[in-house]
Design a protein that fits this description.
Number of domains: 1
Distance between the termini: 46 Å
Number of strands: 11
Organism: Dillenia turbinata
Radius of gyration: 18 Å
CATH topology: Rossmann fold
Bound molecules: NADP nicotinamide-adenine-dinucleotide phosphate
Protein name: NAD(P)-binding domain
CATH architecture: 3-Layer(aba) Sandwich
Shape: globular
InterPro entries: NAD(P)-bd_dom (IPR016040), NAD(P)-bd_dom_sf (IPR036291)
Helix content: 25-40%
Largest sheet: 9 strands, mixed
Order of helices and strands: EHHHEHEHEEHEHHEEHEEHEH
Length: 331
């Protein structure tokens, strides 16, 4: 049975790189080295072509003021949202959580190892961040109390596409991307306003090259099954299909450093619908897209694909994100 960990407010922790490297093994969906090289080739072979779905909004993506967290969370009005983040210790997930904290939006995490939250986010007031222990593969491990009061959900769980240490204990794509998503979604109350699921480009083409290689152990197939379960759940959903993730995971930092993370030059957002993109996307951009989608009513029931390219981006400007999502739907 899941158990809840309350976090006592203490100053944000500075954590040694050594410790954090132990937390996160940066091997994810596209991170198999040979496949990565293959994937890069494919991406770059298309890079001379102008992306068909480009909607670049010329604005700064990341504000990186030193005191951003302190400043924002003190000045932002307390939100009425309670966002359940699943996979909050992962690359995208930790950026989602840090960003919610900075926006003064309450979040609740389901983590297999709740201590990771303390290391990543420091001690936070329980009114802002609550952490429950739970493994999505086991429905019995998801305490119904976890879901009480939750208004929105962002699910960014995942594991490696190919056998790795992250599969230890049968934590395979089938168990995480399919069964885990199914178990989670089955527990959600019908009152939730939005469920955002981070998925992957290529899920509809897992029998075609190059995706069939990435899918050798079923990751794309199981991600699609997870997507379909969300779509058929009757819950208001948005699915974000990410390209190969870049930038981070920011595993060697504390929360303030997470908030200063930048998407490098890759800040301009390429957003489309369907499954046509081949390319990369900054984790920071994916995290921001998930948070923005929560508030944009017309993203309900929609599936987007996302890349990011060099250039300025929408930053955290809600209007610019509205325009991007709207333009994607208009194609
Ligand atoms: N990597 C890519 O290039 C790529 C491309 C497209 C889409 N994606 C997808 O994008 C999303 C985010 O990717 P990422 O690289 O940021 O993720 P990540 O770093 O691999 O993080 C995965 C998260 O899922 C959690 N998780 C794994 N198994 C779990 C379980 N059984 N129960 C509960 N939580 C579990 C992990 O928790 P622990 O800390 O307990 O392990 C971690 O928080 C994933 O869905 C991924 O598949 C990735």
């Amino acid at each position: 049975m899941a158990s809840r960990l309350s976090m006592v407010p203490i100053p944000l922790l500075s954590v040694s790189c050594e410790n954090l490297h132990k937390i996160h093994q940066p091997s994810t969906l596209f991170s198999n080295p040979s496949l990565f090289a293959f994937y890069k080739t494919i991406s770059s072979s298309k890079s001379n072509r102008r992306p068909q779905l480009v909607h670049v909004v010329n604005q700064e993506l990341v504000q990186s003021a030193d005191s951003k967290l302190t400043h924002d969370s003190q000045t932002a009005p307390q939100s009425s949202k309670l966002v359940l983040v699943v996979g909050g210790s992962g690359g995208v997930g930790q950026l989602v959580v840090a960003s919610l904290l900075s926006r003064n939006i309450k979040s609740r995490l389901i983590l297999r190892d709740p201590e990771k939250a303390t290391i990543l986010f420091g001690g936070q007031d329980e009114k802002k961040l609550q952490v429950w222990k739970g493994d999505t593969r086991d429905p019995g491990d998801l305490d119904p109390l976890i879901f009480v009061g939750v208004t929105h959900v962002i699910c960014c769980t995942g594991t490696t596409a190919f056998p790795s240490k992250r599969w230890d204990g049968d934590n395979t794509p089938e168990r995480v991307d399919w069964e885990g998503v199914r178990n989670l979604v089955s527990m959600l109350p019908p009152s939730v306003s939005r469920v955002v699921l981070v998925s992957s480009i290529g899920v509809t083409k897992f029998n075609e090259l190059p995706w069939s290689i990435l899918n050798l152990f079923g990751v794309l197939k199981y991600k699609k099954m997870g997507e379909d379960f969300v779509r058929n759940s009757g819950l208001p959903f948005t699915i974000i299909r990410a390209g190969r993730l870049t930038d981070g995971p920011y595993t060697s930092y504390d929360l303030n450093t997470l908030l200063r993370a930048t998407a490098g030059q890759r800040r301009a957002v390429v957003l489309g619908q369907g499954d046509k993109l081949v390319g990369e996307v900054s984790r920071l951009v994916v995290a921001e897209a998930c948070i923005q989608a929560l508030d944009i009513e017309f993203t309900e029931g929609q599936i987007y694909e996302i890349n990011s390219v060099e250039g300025e981006g929408p930053g955290s400007d809600p209007q610019k994100w509205r325009e991007l999502f709207k333009a994607a739907q208009a194609q």
